[in-house]
Amino acid sequence: MTFPWKELGLAEAWIGTSNGDVCYDLASGQTCDESAANRAPLHVRYTPDDDGVGSDILDLRVLARCLVPTLSNHDLASVCAAYAVPMEGDAQVLIRLLRALLDDALRLDREVVAVLIQLLPEPWKGVLEHVLVFPAAETLVEDEPESGPATEGPAIESSNEALADGGPVAAAFASFEQRSGQLAMARYVEDAFESEQFALIEAGPGTGKTFAYLIPALLHLRRHASDRVVVSTRTKQLQEQLYAKDLPFLRERLAPDVNVALLKGRDNYLCLRRWHALIEELAESLERDSLLPLLAPLVRWMNDTTTGDIEENSAFLSNPQARGLWQRLADSPFHCTGEFCPFADTCFSVQARRRARRADLVVVNHSLLLGDLVVGGVILGKYAHLVVDEAHTLESVARMAFTKTLTERAVLRLADDLAPTGRRRGWLQRTPYTGDRAAVRHAEELIRLLRLQTGKAFRQIARRLPEERRAAFTTLDDLTDEAAGIARLLQQIEAALDALADGIDGDEARRELEGYVRIVQDLESVVGTLSRPATDNSVHWYERGTHLLSCYATPLEVAPFLEEQLYPRLQTLIMTSATLSLAGSFDFLRRSVGLSDDGRIRTLIADSPFAYEERMRIVVPRHLPPAHGELTPYAESLAALLSALSERTTRNGLALFTSYAMMQAVRDCLPRDASVFVQGEMSRTSLTERFRRAVPPVWLFGTESFWEGVDFPGDELEILVISRLPFPVPTDPVLAAMGERLRHAGRDPFLDLSVPLAGLKLRQGIGRLIRTTQDHGMVVIADQRIVTRSYGRLLAAALPVTPESIVESDVLISAAGSWFDDEPPRAS
Prior knowledge:
- The chain is an alpha/beta fold.
- Helix content is 45%, strand content 13%.
- It is built from 35 helices and 23 strands.
- The strands form 4 sheets. It has a 7-stranded parallel beta sheet with strand order 8-9-7-10-15-6-16, with helices on both faces.
- Helix 20 (408-418) packs antiparallel against helix 22 (437-464).
C-alpha cells in the first residue's frame, strides 16, 4: 500500500541536510522541481531540543518524544534504532523516520490523537488533524504458537543448590563461577530466615549480594506461603533493577508462584484526576501555548503504561520545565479525593498499593519503608521479614524522612493552588460554591495577606541569618517579626476554608477542600515547631540555595524510633551493604540504628572475589601540601600530579572531591587542553556516558554523588584519586548538634562520629575502582593524614590493601607507570 503522504498534507516538504534544506516529493523520495519547491509548506528537521522552532518546521523530535517517551535518549540515532530506520543518506534518513513516526501515529487510539492535537502547536497540530480523520490502520497480531506443557526440573531446596556449579543460575551464565562470599552470605541469610534472626552482612563489590539475599527470600516464601518479605533499597534505580531484572530471572528458575510487586512513594505516580484538571486549567490560561506542549509526552504513555510511574517517561523528565509541572500532576494524599474520584477504579497509585499488599515479596525504598511505619503500616500491610539493602544509609534517610521543612515556595504553592495571582485560576475560583461569595472573597484576602507576610518574613530571615550556606538557628521568632503573623494567618485560613464546606457542591470537591485544610495544618505545625526552641533530640537549621532559603527541624537520634516501631514487628531482619563495618567492627552501625546486643544479632563480612593485593595498589603521595591546609598550593600540586599520571599511564581517572571549591580549583590549575569532565557541566547521566565513550586518557571530576553508585568496569576507569579524606563538614549544623549530644554523654564526637562516617565513605569511594575480577588499577589518596595521624591507622585498616607512602613525585609517577606496564593479563 502506498503511504498516504498527500492525504496527510505532506505532498512536498523541505528536508534538512548538512548542506541546507532540499525540497523533496515525499511519495517518490526524489527532489522536487522548482515550481513544486515553491509550494512546499514545511521544513522537516530533527533538532537537539524543542525550543525555538518556527511554525513551519516539522521537528521530528517533538513527535518522537510523544510516541516513544520511554526511550532513555531521544537523539536521532536512538529514535532511528527504535524504529529500525537505517542511518543512511543525509535527507533519506529523515524521510524514512518521518514515515515511521506517522505510520505509528496512524495506529494510535483516536482519543490519544485528539489530545495530542489539543497539546501540540503547529505544524504538528495540522498534521495530526489529518491523522485523526484518516481511517485507523489495523495492527496485526500474529497468533502465538501453542506451547506444550512446561517441563520443570527438580525443585531447588537451598541456596547451595541454586548457586551450585550445575544449578539454575550457573546454567544461565556461560562464565559462571562460584563465589565463596556469595555462598556464605546466602547460607547466612537462609539460616536467619529459618531461625528468625537479625543479621548484619557486609558484602563488597563483586560478592553478588543481591542474589545472595533474594534467593533465600524466594525459597523461604515458597516453603512458607503465608509469609511476606519486604526488600528495601536506598534508591529508586536499585528498586527498578531488583524488580525488572533480578527478581524475574530468579522467580522463573526458583519460585514462579511467588507474587512480587514494586511500590514507590505516591508522588511517583500520575494522578488521572489532576491530569484532566490541569489540561482544563491550562486550556483557559495565558500559559496555554508555553505549558501545554510540555504535557504531550505523557499522552500516549498514560494510555500504555501499566504502572503510571513517571520514572518510565524519559521524554517528560528530561525537560526541566516539564518536571516543574509534575507537582501539579503527581498523586498526593492531600489532593486525593478517594472513593469520590471519578478515576478511583483506574488510579495508578491505588493499584500499585493494592498489588503491594497482595504481594508475597514487595520492593520498596527506605523513605517509603519509614513512612509506612509512621502511618501504622497501612501502606505495606503486615510483614515479618525485612531485607534492607544499602543499609549504611538507613540512619541518614530516616533522619531526613522525619525532618520538618519550611520554605517560602511551599507557602506560595498553597497560595497559588487556592487563589493564584496573574494568569491562573485557582481552586477557589474553579470550584462550584452555592453559599455567600463573601466567604470566598474572605478566604482569598487571607491568602493574599499570607503571600505578603511570608515574602516579608523570608526576606527578613535572609537578612538576619549569617552568610554561611548552612548553619543552626534558635527559633523563627529570633529571625523575623513576622513568624507569629504567618501562624495566625494559617489558623485564619484553616477556619475560612472550613467555613466553605457547607456551600461546596459535590463530595469530590469537599474532599479536595479537606486536603487543602490538611496542607494548611501541616504548615501550621512546621511554623509552630520552628518558632519554639529545639528539643534535646533535634536541631533547627537553615540552608541557602541559589534561589531558595529552607528552614528545617531535624531529629538527631533515630534509633529509638526504629527500636520501637520497626524491630518488634520483625521475625527476620537482614541488613546488608558494601560498607557496614569499620576495621571489622559493626559497632557504629548498631548504635546508629538502635540494634542492641541481645544475642539475636549475628554479623558476617562476606569474602570478596577480588584479588585486591594483585589488582589494586593504594599510594599516598607525601610531596603534596596538606590537603586540609591552604587551597591554592594544594590544588596546584594535585593538578600537576594528575597531569603527570595521565601522561605516563594514558589511563582514565576519576577524582573524588569533598567540595566544589576544591574541585574547581584543581580544574582551573590543569592545562587548558586537558581532557576532563567536571560535575555540574551537564547531568550526571550525560557526564558518565561521555566519560565512558571518551578516548583515554581522560579525567572525571566529581563530588558527593560520585562517591557511590557509579560503575566504571574494565578500562573505563583505572586510576582513582581521593583528594581529601571525606570527613563530614564539622560546621554542618546536624553533625555539630549530634557531636554536642555525644559530648554531653561523655563520648568523643570526633572518634565516635566523624571518623566512622569518614571511614565508611572512604571505603565507598575506593569501591568505585575494582568492579570485576578482571579490573586492575591504582588508588591515590592525596591526603597524608591517613598515614601521619593516629586515626588514620584506623581508616587504613579498613581498606582492601595497605596504603604505601611515597615521598617523591618522580618515584610515584614511575611506580604508577610500572604498575600498569606490568598489569596482569585479563582472562579471555
